[in-house]
Amino acid sequence: MSAISDAAARFRADLDAAVTRARRAAAAAGDRTAAQRERNRGLAERARGRAVRPGDHAATSADVQRVADGFRRDRGLPVEALPPAAELLSPPKSREQMDANANSAPPPPRLGSRPPAGPKGQLPVDTPDDEDFSQARILY
Q: Which stretches does UniProt call biased (Low complexity) (predicted)?
């Protein structure tokens, strides 16, 4: 009986040692993952703030980005939409340039001085009265 109890004690000791090693490995992996996530978060903030210099980082290829996005989506992880690498690595536009681009659209065309005809072809009565709220003025 002594051999069986010794074998059981050795088994329990080996099992305890294996569980301890597994817990240490899991903790170390968690620490590495947390550090990598923090580095990624910092890089993403720098990219959003346009603080990335072109010489410091090489752009990730579109294929690798597509595969990584698919991997994250398949596992239900969040996928942050960042601008393309060329845009992130280009120097930021000046405020004047952005305003000029925003205001460069032509004004909408004027369609006509009179409203279009109604369903039976009648044109609404054109009166100079600003307070004319008749149905013809509202609907047509």
A: 78-92
CB 53 within 8 A of CB 85: no
In a domain, 126, yes or no: no
How is residue 38 written in tokens? Answer: 């923090």
94 found inside a domain? no
97 in a structural domain: no
In a domain, 121, yes or no: no
In contact, 115 and 123? CB cutoff 8 Å: yes
Q: Which domain holds residue 45?
A: 1-53
Structural domain total, the chain: 1
The one-letter amino acid code at 67 reads V
Query: Which long-range contacts (C-beta less than 8 Å, at least 24 apart) are formed by 42-45?
Result: 44/80, 44/82
pLDDT per residue, tens digit, the chain (140 aa), is 688 999 999 999 999 999 999 999 999 999 999 999 999 888 878 877 777 666 666 777 888 888 988 998 998 888 877 777 777 666 666 656 666 666 666 666 666 555 555 666 666 566 666 666 665 555 54
